Amino acid sequence: MTALFSLAGRTAVVTGAGSGIGRGIALALSAAGAAVVLAGRSGSVDETRDLVAEAGGEATGIRVDLRDADALVEVASAVAAERTVDILVNCAGVIDRGAFAETSDERWHDVLAVNLDAPRLLSRVFGAAMVGRGAGKIINIASLLSFQGGREVAGYTVSKHALVGLTRALANEWAARGVQVNAIAPGYIATDNTAPLRADAARDAEILARIPTGRWGTADDLAGAAVFLASPASDYVTGHTLVVDGGWMSR
Description:
The protein is 44% helix and 15% strand. It has helices spanning 20-31, 44-54, 69-82, 105-133, 154-174, 195-199, 201-210, 223-230, and strands at residues 11-15, 35-40, 59-63, 87-90, 136-141, 179-186, 241-244. The longest helix is centred in the middle third of the chain and has 29 residues, at 105-133.
C-alpha cells in the first residue's frame, strides 16, 4: 500500500515554493521521495531548498518572475530539456484586494498573469513532455473562490474560477494520454495572503464561525492531498477539484 503513495524517482516542479502552501507542498512531495524544483521570484525559494536538504531530500531553487511570460517559458523549457518532470504543481498565487471599479488594468493583469497564465504556460511546456511519455501529474491550486464570489477580490476570483476550467479542459484532453490533471481548493489557510483577514478581528471571527473544524488551516493540512494527487494512488482520478477546507463548503 505504501508504494501507491511513493514518489521515489520522480521529479516535481512547484511554483510559489518560497512560502506558505507552496513550501508545504514541496516539503511533502520531497518527504514522499520526489526531487523538487522550486520556482519563485524571491530568495525564499532558497530557504525552502535548505529545508528540503536538511530533511535529506533533493531540491533545486529557481528564481523567476511568473508575471514575465517570456522569461517563464524560457526557464521552464530549460528545465524540461534537462530533466524529466513527472509532476507539476501550479501553486503560486497573488491577491489584489480592493473595489473592482477602482482596480487598474495593471493590477488586474498582474493577478491573472500569476494565477492563470503561468499555470497555462507551464502546463503547456511540461504537459507536452508528459503527453509524449504517456505519464504525468499536474496539480493546480484553486480556491474556495473557484466556487464563490468573495469580497473585493474580483481578479483573484476570476482567475481561480478559470483555473478550475483549465483543469477540467486539460484533464479531458490528456486523460487518454496518461496524464492526470487535478486541482486542490484550499479553504482559509494561515498564509501571508490571508494575513489581512486574520488581522481584522471581526472578519476573523466571521470566518472561524463558519468553519466546522473551528480553526484556520495550515499548509500541512494540504500535504496529504498533494501527495495523493501526485502519486500512483490517483491514476484514475482526473478533472477533479479536491476541496480541503475544514468543512467550509458543507455549511
